[in-house]
Amino acid sequence: MAEPKLDTDKLDDAALAILSLTLHDGNRVWKGIDWSITDRLHAKGLIHDPIGKAKSLALTEAGLARAESALAELFVERSDDPKRSE
Known about the structure:
Oligomer: single chain
Low-confidence stretches: none
Structural class: mainly alpha
Order of helices and strands: HHH
Mean pLDDT: 90
């Protein structure tokens, strides 16, 4: 099965929105995701405990399924998208 084509404009906007949650010193943001988000994802059982020295996070099985579903729902280009007909 072919990989779906992602709407990279939507992805970029979502990344900027999430980065803006760590805004400081005028226009600076941290490269990582806001800790309150990782705390909520952990509380929901979607990632394993984010506390530690590792620079990566581990998704649970439920988190992996939710991530795949959210990616498809929010960011896969659809042929019936009115924006595509512009």
